Structure prediction request, 387 residues.
Amino acid sequence: MALSVQEIFSLLRWQLARICKNSHHTAIRHSIIMLSINLSPNAQVIFAVLSYSFCSGSLVLVNKLILHHLPYPSLVITFQLWATLLFIQIGDAFRCIDVDPIRWKNVKPYLAYTVAFSLGVYCNMKSLSLSNVETVIVFRALSPLLVSVADALFLGREWPSARSWMALSVIAAGAYGYASTDEQFQSQGVLAYFWPTLYLFVISFEMAYGKKIISGVDLKTRSGPVLYTNMLGWPPMLIFAYMGSEYERFYNDAVDHAMRDEPILTSAAIALSLLGCVVGTGIGYSGWYCRDKVSAASYTLIGVMNKCLTVLVNLLIWDNHASMEGIASLGLCLVGGAFYRQAPMKKMHTESETKTTVGDDDGGENGDVSMTPLLRRGAPTATTEKQ
Prediction:
């Protein structure tokens, strides 16, 4: 007897749920997580950094390519956020991943963070659409300076050491050197750096505020932070799309392509958009996993250091990259970031808080390698991950 489409779908869902509940397939489902558990603490940090760096660098390049075909930054990001939510909901429906339930007590602390996250994403996309990748990277390289100041003023850390101040000065010098060689800055002046500058302040606030609230939110799964961030992030992006007249531009472009009998969504645009959704989902998970393994200051620096690969690939793809002098200045920023070390916690903090960061007693010189998770109370560690 023939089955209806609904019956086939129900049967398929039941079968997949049974497979995911099977112990053998559950082991496969947890293989990557168990691999990280069996690694040494330092190896777990390396794995977290590499996975996050790969996704972060890839997303910058993929989004730059997407904007060549679809110059609607807010709509592109909204589509990527929806894709991540769809992935989480499907995984939860088929019991392939565990997801924290949505509770208002968790929504409130994440709301301000998510607004900052959404604004940072929007500023990043606007910067990419109006300038070259190196411009975004240099301004991103300045964020550890602001985050270090916020650490000392609001987050209970000492001021950076002399070595760290020197490293931050090298980063600032590299950024100035880049700006002095950028043709876009010479022709447009400060206006060329409006969106990158706004991005710098927003991302710095996001890093500092995220560290402030993350320990107070009791989420049990890795999907929890990703769910809340993406769930609260897409409404502001639609507002940004309206503010940027992206709906009107998309409609006009669609009409123009229809009159020429050309599709606005080419196969290349569709393929890149799908790839952006995959990488966007990956950076959500790898980003929170990396936060679980390193401190907020180190996490900020990792975001700067992983741009080096982005620059190298960018040199091979686009013609609007910076001059060799500009690239050298960018390299100086990356060198300065490599020599920066996280400041220790202030002595007034309790012993338990001090022990949450290995290497604080020696001025944080070794703290970037073996740090116990900042998300100990706010997100699962590798040993409690259920996903």
Confidence is low (pLDDT under 50) at residues 22-32, 349-387. Residues 41-69 form the longest helix (29 residues). The radius of gyration is 22 Å. The chain is about 70% helix and 0% strand.
